Amino acid sequence: MRHSCLFAAISMTGLVLAGCGPDSSSDSGYLNPATDVDLPLETFRLQDTEGLPSTLQRTAFADFYRGIEPVDEGADNGSATALREHLDAFLGATPNEDGTDYTAVRNPLDLINEVIASGTVDNFNEGRRLMRDSIEEDEAASYNTPANDALVRFTETGADTTASEADSTWIYVMLDWTYNPTLKKVFRATQFVARPPADGETDPAEVASASWSGRYDTSTFGTSGFNQPEFSATSYTGRTLGNVEFLQEFIGTQRDTLTLTAAENLVINGEEPDCVKAVLTYGEATVRVFTSTDEPPTVEEDGERTANPQHCGNQQNGEEAIRYDTVTIAGRQ
Fold first, then answer.
1. pLDDT single digits (tens) 90-100
2. Chain center to CA of 218
3. What are the residue ranges spanned by the domains of the chain?
4. Strands, E assignment, the chain
5. 157-175 residues labelled b (16+ CB within 10 A) or e (exposed)
6. pTM (2 decimals)?
C-alpha cells in the first residue's frame, strides 16, 4: 500500500499543514474513490455575476490584493502597485479601473477550488463525502489521484478564447483529501503542471506549475459549497518572473505572507530586489515589506547550513524596507 504525506510549512507559526494517510485504503476499509476527471468548461475565467454570491471573494488573493492599499496615498512608495502588477501575470488578473482590486482571474488554482465548491464534479463530491464519513467514524481515509493513476483535466471550450492550445487544457497531477484522526483535521492538496508551449510560441502563459494545500476544521468541513480553511499555502512557479509563495492564516493571527523569489522586473522602494516578502496583518492593518538582492536563503557556517538573516524570507520585524498602514478589509475571508 502506498502512502502520501503533504508538508507545507508556515514558518510564522511553526505550524505544519500535514496530512498523512493511506492512499488506496485504510484499516477501516475505506477505499480511495479517485478517478480520472475530464471536465469541459466554456471558460477558465472567474468573475462575479450580478445577483449571485461573489465568486472572486473566494479566490486566494482577494483579501491581500485589496488589503495592501495604503491608507495614506504614497505611504507605500509604490510597493502596492508593484506587487499587484507582478501578481497579475500569475493570477491572470484583470484589474479594476484604479488597480486596487481585480474584476476577473484566470489561473489553475482558483479554478479548481471553485469547481470543487460548485459541486460540478461527482467524483470530487465523493472525496468530500469520504472525508465526512471518516470524520464521523474518526478513522483515517484518503482520496488521492496519484494512488489510483488518475488525472484531473479541464478543457476550455469557449469559441472566444484567446489562449494557446497548450493553455486551453489544464492538467492536475495530484488532488488529495486526507483525514488525520490524530490531529482531528482534514487536509487538501492540489498540484498543477502546465503543458509545454508549442514550438514557436513566443508568449506562453506565465505559470509553469502550481500547488495549493489547506487545513480544515472537522466541525465545519462540509460536503457541499465552499469550505473555509484554517490555513493555506499557495505556490506558483513562473516561466520568466520567478516564484510566488503565499501563506494565509485564517484563525488566530489574521495574516497573509507573500514571498517572491528569483523575482524579475520588480521595483520596490526604487530598487530591483530578487527577493521580496510582504506581510499583511489584518488586525493591525499594516504591511511590512522586506527585500534582499543576491542573498541565498541559507549560508554555510562552521560546516553547517544555517538560515541567512539577510535573505528577505528570514528578515524579522524592524528590518523591513517599508512599513505602512493599510485600508481595513471588512469580513476578512
1. 999 999 999 99
2. 21
3. 3-45+54-325
4. 3-10, 15-22, 37-41, 94-95, 102-104, 141-144, 152-156, 169-180, 185-193, 207-217, 231-238, 243-249, 255-261, 275-281, 286-292, 298-301, 304-307, 322-325
5. eeeebebeeebbbbebebb
6. 0.90
